[in-house]
Design brief:
Layout lengths: L4 E8 L2 E8 L5 H15 L10
Antiparallel strand pairs: 1-2
GO molecular function: peptidoglycan binding
InterPro entries: SPOR-like_dom (IPR007730), SPOR-like_sf (IPR036680)
Protein name: SPOR domain-containing protein
Length: 52
């Protein structure tokens, strides 16, 4: 589905948090479509952010 996945793990307030960075997209719209597919398949919310 999405190539080039990278997972970062952080601890905050006694909880583990996972940031999953996925792929390179030609447009924000393309990234939003991928985020919707991830949400539909996993049930987890997702957010599209620009690369910092």
């Amino acid at each position: 589905m999405i190539d080039d996945l990278h997972i970062e793990i952080a601890e905050s307030g006694g909880h583990l948090w996972y940031r999953v960075r996925a792929g390179k997209f030609r447009s924000r719209e393309e990234a939003e479509e991928a985020a919707i597919k991830v949400m539909e398949r996993t049930g987890y919310s997702s957010k599209v952010l620009p690369v910092e």
